[in-house]
Structures are given as structure tokens and as C-alpha cells.
Amino acid sequence: MINVGIIGTGFIGPAHIEALRRLGNINVVAICDASQPAAEARAAALNVPHAYSDVAAFLQHEGLDAVHNCTPNHLHASINRQILRAGKHVFSEKPLCMTMDEARELVELAEQAGVVHGVSFVYRQFAMVQQAASMVRYQQLGRLFSAQGSYLQDWMLEETDYNWRVDAEKGGASRAVADIGSHWCDTIQFVTGKKIVEVMADLSIVWPTRKASVGDAATFGASADETQFESREVTTEDMGFVLIRFDDGSKGSFSVSQVSAGRKNRLNLEVNGSLGSLAWDQEVPQQLWLGNRHKANQVLSDDPALLNPDIAARARFPGGHIEGWPDAFRNMMQQFYQAVAQGEAPQQQDARFATFRDGAQVMAIVDAIVQSHQQQRWVKVSV
């Protein structure tokens, strides 16, 4: 058994625990939260035997093999640094940290430590995204020349929608692009096998001020009574539109929005090649649209018998059995802990899961997008 600890038990921490428990060879032995009473309450609710409120003490827990960092963004760098210096395998929520200097430092620390390191870019783990990437690898679409898509949500649509991600000091200088656009960038780079090297961006703040709840507001939670709100200035974008250039000269575009009514979690992508196109929508995750010019278009479902042989095992159930986000999350954890069980960090080119190096590269894209918007020009991605 591999002993694992979780730091941070908000929305995403329990999702990590649920996915880990589905693997069968993982024992979640401890959690760490902001206060001891909170940690003990969450440990009891999640059936975890040990609770801590001090990260240093948590990292000294006997037999701890790996740690998941599920804290708010502004804590990622310092906690990832502590985990690495303790010599533990580390799986971090994204973003990896808040600045590119921190990202470069963490990549260096992780590689020097010789531990397995991962970042939570989950969408590459869906079976049909794996199928899309396999089709590109085997040149089933021919020569790729464009990619486009979007990631749309509506949970920040109203003026009273507010949580820590809006605060630049806690969430970072970018919100919509860093929070969800980063997922789109990682997914499209995984599917195409190409890196985004230059961007031109136009970002927008829909609500220059928002009414923040005086009490705590959970991510995706319901709004509180109007009388409990206070106005706060907003400096992070609600939506954005980005032109991109890939390292082989091909081009594309994507948009992000957290203010698109009715769109709950719609990551959508399309790739166009000389022999055909493909498109995928996270809200209909078991279907891959295949576009043709001289014959009827197709919709491929995630039946293992219909997928490319190299990735057929990524669809774990027979066709027609629904697999979604929790299953992709489990797949991500499985790939990470296979590397842990092998006792060595994956090679840089190994795309089984996103590493700290991948996390730093996507952070560089986000930085370039913010800079492009500020300067209203094309900006090169500098890792």
C-alpha cells in the first residue's frame, strides 16, 4: 500500500480522496487543514484517521509516501516547496504556483529530489481525449493546421458571485484564463502534440466591482442573503479571447468565460487537418465528433472495441456505460501512482500525466496572455 496525505479539504480535496480510494492500493492516512478543529472535523467526515493543522508536523507523519496539495493558489508554492524538501512524491492542484520564478524553482527542486511530481490537468485523461491524441499521433487527420475551442462556465455570472479566486492576492493576477484557460491549453497541447509559443489576447472584466459575502462562500455554492454583501473591486478577468501560434507554425484560437449563462463546465475543442477534423465537448465526454469532406461525418463513442488499440484500456467499461469527470480524475491518479510504484520519476516526454515541467509551461502561456492583453500585441511564451 502507498500512504498518502492531503493538504486542503475544500471542493477539490475530497475529489482527490474519492479518486484515490478507487485505485485499491492507496491508503489516505492523514489530512491537513487551516485549523485543528477544522482538520479533525473533515477527517471524521472523510474517514481519514489522522488530522493536522501544521504542515511541518503533517509531513513528519510516519510512513507518508506522497502528498497532494489541494490548497488555494497563493499557498501552492510554499507548500509544494515544503513537500519536495521533505522528499515526498507530490501531486499539486493547478496552478503550480503564482509566479514564473517560483515555477522554475519548483521544477528544479522536483527534478533534484528525484520524486514523482504531478499537476492536476485532468482533461487529458478522458478516454475520448486520449483517442483524439492517438488519432493525431497516427496521422489519421493528416497534416494539422488549426485548432480552436473554448472553456465556458456561468458560476461568476452575477454581481454577487464571489470567492477567493477573484482576489488577485489569493488567486493570482489572472482568473478565467489561469483557472480554466490553463486546462484548455494543456488539453489542446496534449491532443495535438504541439506547444503554444505565441499569443495575442483581449481580456475583459464584466463586473468591475462585485458584492462579496461577508461570510465564507464556497466554490459553486449558492448565494447568501443580499444584506450580507459588501462591494469589492475586481482586477481579474471574467472572460477572454486568445489567438495562438504553435511551434510548427500552425495556428488557432480559444475563448474562456466564467459569465456564460447556461454553460456549466463546457471545455470544447476542435482540431482540423488535411484528411479530417475532430471535436470534443467535456459536457458530452463519451463522444468524439469526426468530420469528413467526402463521406458522412461520424460520432465515435468510447466503446473500448472501437478505440485505437494503444489507448483502448483508457475506457474502463463496455460501451454505453457512462464515464465522466470522476473517472478521468481516477485515471489521472492511476497514471501518477503507477509512476510512484515504479520508483522513478517519469521522463519529460512521458505524457501519462502532467508534471511540474508541464505546469510551468502552461503558467508561461498564461503569463504571456496577460502580458499580451496589457500591451495589446503578440507575445512569445517564455518558460
From TrEMBL:
Coiled coil: none
Domain Gfo/Idh/MocA-like oxidoreductase N-terminal residue range list: 2-120
Keywords, sorted A to Z: Oxidoreductase
GO molecular function: nucleotide binding; oxidoreductase activity
Pfam families hit by this protein: GFO_IDH_MocA, GFO_IDH_MocA_C3
Superkingdom of origin organism: Bacteria
Domain GFO/IDH/MocA-like oxidoreductase: 129-278
Name by which UniProt lists this protein: Dehydrogenase
Organism, scientific name: Pantoea rodasii
Lineage, broadest ranks: Bacteria, Pseudomonadati, Pseudomonadota, Gammaproteobacteria, Enterobacterales
